[in-house]
Specification:
39% of the residues lie in helices and 23% in strands.
Length: 345
């Protein structure tokens, strides 16, 4: 069944400089980012971006520094105005909204979690969590029950009366997530939300986000420069380079079939056994077959290797919700662990 498109980005361009409209046609005709800078003194931020963000999914936008990923997410709630193109939220053009409607969009429909936490130092954890309600004119007595509920859910029960400087970085980011949840907005924009955290805390926050998403089914746009994080979180992965989409789709498919040397370089050092799932390499069952055991389609290949004990002759049955949907031969698993280098060259 087709999934509902919550946010549609269409033919989006952003050029930074004094007269972006005057150089737009050159970009549309294929001028590169370097050429635009050298010949016209303008910087290409985004070029012909077309992305669908589906309801209830985590769309991860990733790329190296300068790729345009943070510029792109800031167009969704119009923190940045585009040079050309459309951003549709539930089929309504965000670029046509007046100031009042735009404030309502940011307050009620698209919450944002920032890399640097963006907590107010003079307000308590409880007050920071309820900030969207306070901005809407609600007092503490109106929003504190909701704020306490979400603070407890992200593991901060008992910290409500503390101030941000009394919390660790991971705890501060939990306040940021709770604040986004208190707003009850259907869309969460997360710009490098975990990149300032230590690796272990970062992994814990990723797990927390996936746990919450399993319960709440929010529409999330997540920005990162880390491929491991992207592959862990993404339902739909968009990879940018120099302001352009190089490849997008199911992250498993991108890992198995990179369509560009840039993507091949990105995925070359990934632990494929840990990231790839059974569903990505399984094949249909043909007739009566005997199996060495059962797997779940979401198991990673690392767990299958352990289960097989290194026996490459084994074939496993694959289950989804307890029902058989395919098989996985260890020979197919072994082939999937070899990067497809040179396919796009």
């Amino acid at each position: 069944m087709a999934k509902n498109v919550r946010i549609a980005i269409r033919k989006l361009y952003k050029i930074f400089g004094p007269t972006p409209e005057q150089v737009l046609d050159h970009v549309r005709q294929g001028m590169s980012k370097a050429q635009l800078q050298d010949e016209y003194g303008h910087v290409l931020g985004l070029k012909d971006i077309n992305v669908d963000v589906h309801e209830g999914e985590i769309t991860v936008i990733m790329g190296l520094s300068g790729s345009g990923k943070s510029t792109l997410i800031r167009h969704l709630n119009r923190l940045i105005e585009p040079t050309a193109g459309e951003v549709l939220f539930d089929d309504e053009d965000v670029l046509s909204l007046d100031e009042m409607a735009l404030r309502q969009l940011r307050r009620e429909k698209m919450s944002m979690v920032f890399q640097k936490f963006a907590l107010l130092p003079h307000k308590t954890v409880l007050e920071n969590a309820g900030m969207s309600w306070e901005i809407a004119g609600q007092g503490l007595e109106r929003y504190q029950e909701e704020a306490r509920k979400w603070l407890a859910r992200v593991g901060l029960e008992g910290n409500e009366d503390q101030y941000p400087h009394q919390l660790s970085g991971g705890m501060q980011q939990r306040v940021g997530i709770a604040r986004a949840l208190v707003s009850n907005s259907p869309v969460m924009l997360m710009d490098e939300a975990f990149s300032a955290l230590d690796p272990l805390i970062r992994s814990d926050m990723q797990d927390l986000l996936l746990e919450l998403q399993g319960e709440l089914h929010k529409t999330i746009v997540f920005i990162t420069h880390d491929l491991d994080e992207a592959l862990k979180l993404a339902d739909h992965l968009v990879i940018l380079k120099d302001g352009e989409v190089v490849q997008q789709g199911d992250p498993q498919e991108i890992l198995l079939k990179p369509n560009d040397p840039y993507i091949e370089d990105f995925v070359s050092d990934i632990n494929r056994a840990r990231v790839l799932r059974v569903r990505s390499v399984m094949s249909p069952v043909t007739g009566d077959e005997s199996f060495a055991g059962d797997l779940v389609e979401t198991d990673n290949l690392e767990s299958v290797l352990a289960k097989s004990g290194g026996d490459v002759t084994q074939v496993f049955r694959v289950l989804r919700h307890g029902e058989p949907v395919g098989k996985l031969a260890m020979t197919d698993l072994t082939r999937a662990l070899v990067p497809a280098v040179g396919a796009s060259r």
